[in-house]
Amino acid sequence: MLVFILNAGSSSLKYQLMNPINKEVLAVGICERIGIDGILKHEFGDDQKIKIETDLPTHKEAIELVLKTLTEGEGKVIDSIDDIEAIGHRAVHGGEEFAGSVMVSDAVINKMKELIPLAPLHNPANIMGMEICQDLMPGKPNVAVFDTAFHQTMPDYAYMYPLPYEQYTKNGVRKYGFHGTSHYFVSNEAAKMLDKKHNTRIIVCHLGNGSSVSAVFDGKCIDTSMGLTPVQGLMMGTRSGDIGAGAIQYMMETEGWNIKEMLDVLNKKSGIVGISGKSSDLREVLEGAESGDDRCRLAVDMIAYIIKKYVGSFAAALDGVDALCFTGGIGENAALIREKVCAGLDYMGLNIDPVKNNKRSGEPRDISTNGSRGRIFVIPTNEEYVIANDTYKIVKGLE
Question: What is d(CA 393, CA 399) in angstroms, rounded to the nearest whole number?
Fold first, then answer.
């Protein structure tokens, strides 16, 4: 079965063509600068790549170009669109309505439209991708896989904010969490790697330009760092993470910022780029720290310290930890961040092996010492596989 996986952003469109049964990826790519000028980057076969620069005024033209590239010319990997059996869509916010992946219908799209205030940048683009695929590939089943769904198992005392209760009942103000497909995949892989069948206590650190931590007990999320929106939690590439409300009020008053300007600072000018003053790319910041840039050094220390605090609090929530997992671009590749996060966690039974930690590999691996009571894993995430597999199971009636 071939599943076309779509992740529609406001001005970009990521895609994969995958067989979820054997995990074979036939093609992967991205359309960028939609509505500006338009670029398609398409990878297929044995590391073959093509780049197409053309006008992409809307997402419809972008998806049409992707489908044409998959079926014609140099980048062809299938004979016809008919070879695609289903489309799996990344959907960012499902609120409380969606605790799992669902077949896309008018009712689902209407409910997602109601949730747009909770994800104004993401849900409209996700919905657009679904509607365009329904138009371009009529009769093909579409499945929505929600970033928030995995976190719907959190108990009420973990997801509620200590605000007037009416803010929850009237406006849905609560913690939802994100990166759910990644946390689900990595925690499941970690459970397989552990020599423990039940009551597994796993902490997943998904670290990239956007970052989050989750506490997973026996396969179910009991807490996560992101909240109503993705700005809460860890320090990220451009997002601030946790900030006191008083600090926000003070900055708005002293700088004369309105709420839109304040949110722009919190979402786009803070985090790694805000502290380092150099870049939101941790690789550049690590290079800066090595060369003696004190603001880059501070950014690195803050990143690791904040992650470590969440690891400690989630170990308390889980009553211990069997496995601490690192994933995402930073989690998989930044050995120094893993080292700093794990330093001093011996009391929790987590001992990192410096030699294993500094070895690079694209495969899941254990980087803890042989005598470590808890395990420390580096597990490459595969969100696209989760989307493809959920799509396969729902279309085939297996869920």
Answer: 6
